[in-house]
Amino acid sequence: MLRFNGFAMIHKALRAMLYDTAQKMQQANFADPESTLPAFAAAERIVELFDDHADHEDNHILSGITDVNPELAQQFEAEHVTDRQLASDIKEGIDAYKNAANVMERMLAGNKVFYAFNEFIAFNLKHMVQEETVLNETLWGKYTDAEIGSLNQKIAASVAPDKAVDNLKWMMKSCNDMEIGMFVKNVVSGAPEHLVNIVLATAQAELPAERWERLNASLSVEATA
After folding, report:
1. How many domains does the chain have?
2. Domain that residue 17 falls in
3. Cα(167)–Cα(153) distance, rounded to whole angstroms?
4. Which residues lie below 8 Å from residue 11, measured CB to CB, with a gap of 6+?
């Protein structure tokens, strides 16, 4: 039986952020701060969002499986420690770039950031696959789909508003019509009006016109049913 994957949409958003920033970084000329600093700012934001994501997993997900699979919980907690160290390497490189005294120092620091960010990408892509396969097996053994959905809602409620907006934007850019449709319908049916308006406005802004029209039409059908 196909079970609910509570990681699916946020992981798609996080992957898309990584890919987008990797492209920006590959196009940057490290000798030129004007070319480079926007890409590095995007990397700093991603590091912040991944750190926040790991905190939520530690507090809301891994803490909930220590009774049934403590070794797995410890494994993923340890991976989050590794992830934060990789993030620290990126931030140290960016600081070195900003403090570089000449072009050569900027080039060396820029390359350090570039390779550190690629290490971060590689680690997190594998980590997210493990969460969606190995960790999900433990979650599915303990919780119903409805209970996993409630965990997701708890996590969503604890995300800072500015980070929630970033996550939502990239979810709309990255997820398929079925995922977005189910997500938006759940929001429309149960969230406060101001949150519903934010979600709908973001969907309209980020989805291609034809996809937004299909989504909006399906919501109209549900409202009149």
Report:
1. 2
2. 8-160
3. 14
4. 128, 131, 132
